[in-house]
UniProtKB/TrEMBL annotation:
<dbReference type="GO" id="GO:0002940">
    <property type="term" value="P:tRNA N2-guanine methylation"/>
</dbReference>
<comment type="similarity">
    <text>Belongs to the class I-like SAM-binding methyltransferase superfamily. Trm1 family.</text>
</comment>
<keyword id="KW-0808">Transferase</keyword>
<dbReference type="GO" id="GO:0000049">
    <property type="term" value="F:tRNA binding"/>
</dbReference>
<dbReference type="GO" id="GO:0016423">
    <property type="term" value="F:tRNA (guanine) methyltransferase activity"/>
</dbReference>
<keyword id="KW-0949">S-adenosyl-L-methionine</keyword>
<dbReference type="InterPro" id="IPR029063">
    <property type="entry name" value="SAM-dependent_MTases_sf"/>
</dbReference>
<dbReference type="Pfam" id="PF02005">
    <property type="entry name" value="TRM"/>
</dbReference>
<feature type="domain" description="C2H2-type">
    <location>
        <begin position="182"/>
        <end position="202"/>
    </location>
</feature>
<protein>
    <recommendedName>
        <fullName>tRNA (guanine(27)-N(2))-dimethyltransferase</fullName>
    </recommendedName>
</protein>
<feature type="region of interest" description="Disordered">
    <location>
        <begin position="1"/>
        <end position="81"/>
    </location>
</feature>
<dbReference type="InterPro" id="IPR002905">
    <property type="entry name" value="Trm1"/>
</dbReference>
<keyword id="KW-1017">Isopeptide bond</keyword>
<keyword id="KW-0832">Ubl conjugation</keyword>
<keyword id="KW-0597">Phosphoprotein</keyword>
<dbReference type="InterPro" id="IPR042296">
    <property type="entry name" value="tRNA_met_Trm1_C"/>
</dbReference>
<feature type="compositionally biased region" description="Basic and acidic residues">
    <location>
        <begin position="65"/>
        <end position="78"/>
    </location>
</feature>
Length: 748
C-alpha cells in the first residue's frame, strides 16, 4: 500500500492536469483507467505504465518507494502470520519440496567442491563438502519439516523473516529467525507447532489447494489400510492422536480381534443384537462387525468429531456398506446409499458418547476412549440390556501400571504401588471401577475376560440386571494387604470389624523379623475371577472360524490360565449343540460345554437363569483360578541356576499344586502354592553356578522333607528349612541356603 500511494503521488506531481480530469470524470474511462493503473502499476526499467502511457519516474523517487515498501514489509513480518490478499498463483519457496533429493539438487551435491546450504545464510553455515552438507540438510531441515499433501515445508533460516534487533549494552545484535513458509498462503511462521495449527485451520476452512503454480493438487492424501478383509482410509499421522482427528493404531489389532470374538459369541446366543462402537475414529471396528457377522448384528458407529464422522462414511462406502446418518439427538436420519435400510446398513451418529448411551439401549457396547474410560461407565450401564456385554479398553497404562500413582487415585479412587503382579493389579482396578458403576444402576457383572498387555487393558463383562447380582458383585470388592519385603499378598477378610493386628492375615512373618512397617494396603480391588472358561472356549472357536491367527495363541493361554492347568486340550469343533430354541422370535443356541445358557425373554426364566448361575458359581468356587501370580526371576536364589520354566511348572504340579502360566507376565507362574513352598521347590531344583567339581543336577532334600508336603504357614516352612540346614551334609548347599533363607532373601 505504501508503494502504491508513493507511485500515485509521483504521478500526481508529474501530471497535475490528470487529477482534474479524474475529478470531472469520476466514472469516466480516462480518469478511472489512470487510477487503476496507478494502483496496479508495474515498475519496469524506471517507468510506470499507466493508461497506455509511459510516464518516466526519477530513480531517486523509485528508491524512496522501494525503501517505503521494505519498511512496510518489515512491519508486517513482525507478526507470525502475514495476510495474503492476492489470489493469483505464485512460485513456491525453495524450502517447500517433495523429496530430500529435490532439496539436495539446489545445493549441487554431485560436485566435489564446497557448497553453501540453500536454506541458511553464509554466516550461519559455512561452505562444506557434499557429505557434511547432506547431513546438514537431512538433520536440520528435512527432519523438522511439516508435511502436507506430499510436500515438506522445511525450516528456513534465510533473511525472509527478520527479527527485531536486540540491544545488548552498547552493541546492537540482529539475527534472522528460523521460520516456515506456508504452502497455502505463503505466510511465515516461526514455530513448528504453530505451523501445524496454521495448516489445520486451513484444512478446517476447506482451503487445501495451494496457490503456487508449481504445486499440483494431489488426488487424495489418504492412505488405505486393510485389516481383517476390511479397507479403511486413514489421514496422515494416523498413528499419532495429537496430530490427527481419526486415530488408528495398528498395534491394537489384537485388541480388535478379541472384541470381535466376544461379539461373535454373543451373536450366537441371540440375534440380531444391537451393538455400539462409541468411539469410532476411522470406523474399523464397526466395519469388521458388520462385514463378517452380517445379519446377526445391527452396528452403530459413533464419534463426536465431524472429521471422523466424514471419514467413517467414506470407509463405509469404500467397503460397499450403506450408511444411515444421524447427527442430532432427535430422530432426524439421512440415508446414504441405494434405497431402504438392509442388513448391510451401518448407522453413523455424531454425538457425545454419554448422550447416545443415555438415549438408546444396546446389547453390546464397546468403549475405547483416549485414556481412561471411567467417565463413560455410568452411561454405559444405564441402558445396556440384561445379559448384554460391555467391553472397555483403557490405554492410561501410566496410571494403571503404578507409574503415576496420584492419577490412579484421582481416576479410580485406588491406592497402588509397583509390584511384581502390577498388570493383574491394573485389570482388577478397572474391574472394580466397572463393578461400582454397574452397582449404581442396580446391575451386577460377571467378568468374562480381562487382558493386560503392553499398550492396553481390556475388560469384558456380562451385565446381570437386579439388586441381588449387584450386591453380590459389590461384595467382591476388597482391599489387598501386600508385603513389600517378600511380595506376599492376601485379600482382607470380609466384614467391617477392625482387627488389632492386620499383619496376622499375611502368611509371612516379615513384620516380626524386619524393623518398621513392612506391608501396605492396596485397593479397593476386584477379588473375584478374571476369566470365564466356557466363554473363552467359545471365543477360541470363533477365532478359528474367522481365521484370527493373532488371537488364537492368546486365547489358548487364557483358557489354560482360567483352568489353572498346563494341559492344553483344545477342540476345533463347535461347542454348540445342533438344536435351536426359539422364544419370541429369538433363536438361541444352547452350549454343550459348561458355559452358560442365557435365555433372553421372560422374567421368570431370566431370574431362574440368574439363580442357577449363582448356584453354579458357589459350587465352582473351589475350582476358581488362584488370584495373582509369582515371577520366577523375582524369587530366584542368588548364586543358583533356576530350572526351565516349563520344568518348574511340572515340579509344582507333581508336588500336588495347581499351576499354569499367565499372559500377564511371560515369566509368571499362577499357582495356589504358598510362597514358602514355592521357594522351597525352586531351591530344590536349582543348581549352584560355581560348583565346578560337582555334577550338575538338582539340590537333593533330605528324606524328612518331601516335595508333596503342603506348607500351611510361612512359620512352619521356616522351621522345616531350619531342620534341613541341620541335617544337610553339603557345605556348599548349606551356605547357599543360609544366605538365601526367606528372611535374608526378603531383605535383599
Amino acid at each position: 500500500m505504501a508503494a502504491e500511494e508513493a507511485a500515485e503521488a509521483s504521478l500526481a506531481r508529474l501530471s497535475p492536469g490528470r487529477e482534474d480530469d479524474a475529478e470531472e470524470n469520476p466514472e469516466g474511462g480516462g480518469g478511472g483507467g489512470g487510477d487503476t493503473a496507478a494502483l496496479n502499476g508495474v515498475v519496469v526499467s524506471g517507468k510506470v505504465k499507466s493508461n497506455n502511457l509511459d510516464v518516466k519516474v526519477p530513480e531517486s523517487e523509485l528508491e524512496t518507494e522501494e525503501k517505503g515498501t521494505e519498511e512496510e514489509s518489515t512491519r508486517e513480518s513482525e507478526s507470525n502470520v502475514l495476510d495474503v490478499t492476492p489470489d493469483y498463483p505464485r512460485e513456491k519457496h525453495i524450502s517447500i519440496q517433495r523429496h530430500l533429493a529435490d532439496l539436495e539438487k539446489l545445493a549441487d551435491l554431485k560436485e566435489d567442491a564446497k557448497k553453501h546450504c540453500p536454506l541458511c545464510p553464509e554466516e550461519r553455515f559455512k561452505a562444506s563438502y557434499s557429505h557434511k552438507l547432506h547431513r546438514h540438510l537431512q538433520n536440520l531441515h528435512w527432519k523438522v519439516s511439516v508435511e502436507f499433501q506430499g510436500y515438506r515445508m522445511c525450516i528456513c533460516h534465510l533473511p525472509c523473516h527478520p527479527v527485531k534487533p536486540n540491544f545488548v549494552g552498547d552493541q546492537t545484535s540482529s539475527k534472522m529467525g528460523a521460520h516456515y513458509h506456508c504452502i497455502i498462503c505463503s505466510a511465515t511462521i516461526t514455530r513448528r507447532t504453530d505451523m501445524i495449527g496454521h495448516i489445520n485451520r486451513h484444512v478446517n476452512k476447506g482451503e487445501t489447494e495451494s496457490r503456487f503454480t508449481t504445486v499440483p493438487a494431489p488426488k487424495s492424501s489418504n492412505q488405505v489400510l486393510k485389516e481383517l478383509a476390511t479397507d479403511v482410509q486413514v489421514l496422515p499421522n494416523y498413528s499419532t492422536p495429537q496430530k490427527t482427528d481419526s486415530y488408528f493404531n495398528p498395534k491394537m489389532k489384537l485388541n480388535r480381534q478379541l472384541i470381535f470374538c466376544a461379539l461373535a459369541v454373543l451373536a450366537e446366543e441371540r440375534k440380531p443384537i444391537e451393538c455400539l462402537d462409541a468411539f469410532g475414529a476411522t470406523g474399523i471396528m464397526g466395519l469388521q462387525w458388520a462385514k463378517h457377522l452380517r445379519t446377526s448384528v445391527k452396528v452403530t458407529i459413533n464419534d463426536c468429531n465431524e472429521n471422523s464422522v466424514t471419514m467413517i462414511q467414506e470407509n463405509c462406502l469404500l467397503n460397499k456398506m450403506k450408511v444411515k446418518l444421524n447427527t442430532k439427538e432427535e430422530d432426524n436420519d439421512e440415508a446414504m446409499g441405494d434405497g431402504e435400510e438392509t442388513s448391510d446398513t451401518i448407522e453413523v451418529t455424531k454425538m457425545d458418547a454419554n448422550v447416545i448411551m443415555h438415549l438408546r439401549s444396546f446389547d453390546f457396547i464397546h468403549l475405547d476412549p483416549f485414556g481412561t474410560s471411567v467417565n463413560y461407565l455410568d452411561s454405559a450401564f444405564r441402558n445396556v440390556r440384561n445379559l448384554g456385554i460391555v467391553s472397555l479398553t483403557s490405554t492410561d497404562i501410566s496410571s494403571l501400571y503404578a507409574k503415576a500413582q496420584h492419577v490412579a487415585l484421582r481416576h479410580y479412587g485406588c491406592n497402588i504401588v509397583r509390584t511384581e503382579y502390577y498388570k493383574e493389579l491394573a485389570a482388577r482396578i478397572v474391574i472394580a471401577a466397572v463393578t461400582r458403576a454397574a452397582a449404581r444402576c442396580n446391575k451386577g457383572i460377571e467378568v468374562l475376560l480381562a487382558v493386560a498387555l503392553e499398550h492396553f487393558v481390556l475388560v469384558v463383562v456380562r451385565v446381570l440386571r437386579g439388586p441381588s447380582p449387584a450386591d453380590d458383585s459389590a461384595k467382591k470388592i476388597r482391599y489387598l494387604i501386600h508385603c513389600q519385603w517378600c511380595e506376599e499378598r492376601i485379600f482382607q477378610k470380609e466384614g467391617n470389624m477392625v482387627e488389632e493386628n492386620p499383619y496376622q492375615q499375611l502368611p509371612c512373618d516379615c513384620h516380626g523379623s524386619m524393623p518398621g512397617k513392612t506391608a501396605v494396603v492396596l485397593g479397593p480391588l476386584w477379588s473375584g475371577a478374571l476369566f470365564n472358561t466356557g466363554f473363552l472356549r467359545r471365543m477360541l472357536f470363533e477365532a478359528h472360524q474367522y481365521g484370527l491367527d493373532e488371537a488364537q495363541p492368546l486365547l489358548k493361554t487364557l483358557v489354560c490360565e482360567a483352568e489353572c492347568t498346563t494341559l492344553k486340550h483344545f477342540s476345533t469343533h463347535s461347542p454348540y449343540e445342533e438344536n435351536k430354541q426359539e422364544e419370541c422370535g429369538v433363536y438361541i443356541k444352547t452350549p454343550n460345554t459348561s458355559a452358560e445358557s442365557y435365555l433372553v425373554p421372560g422374567k421368570r426364566k431370566r431370574e431362574e437363569v440368574i439363580r442357577n448361575a449363582a448356584k453354579r458359581q458357589k459350587c465352582e468356587t473351589s475350582a476358581e483360578h488362584p488370584a495373582f501370580y509369582y515371577n520366577i526371576h523375582r524369587h530366584s536364589i542368588k548364586g543358583m541356576n533356576m530350572p526351565k520354566l516349563n520344568k518348574f511348572l511340572s515340579y509344582l504340579s507333581e508336588a500336588g499344586y495347581r499351576v499354569s502360566r499367565t499372559h500377564f507376565d511371560p515369566m509368571g507362574v499362577r499357582t495356589n502354592a504358598p510362597l514358602a513352598q514355592f521357594k522351597t521347590i525352586l531351591m530344590k531344583y536349582s543348581a549352584p553356578t560355581y560348583a565346578a567339581g560337582q555334577a550338575e543336577g538338582p539340590v537333593h532334600l533330605p528324606e524328612d522333607v518331601q516335595p508333596g508336603e503342603q506348607v500351611q504357614a510361612a512359620a512352619d516352612g521356616k522351621a522345616e528349612d531350619a531342620e534341613f540346614l541341620e541335617d544337610d551334609k553339603s557345605g556348599v548347599a548349606a551356605s547357599v541356603f543360609t544366605k538365601d533363607s526367606p528372611a535374608h532373601c526378603a531383605a535383599d
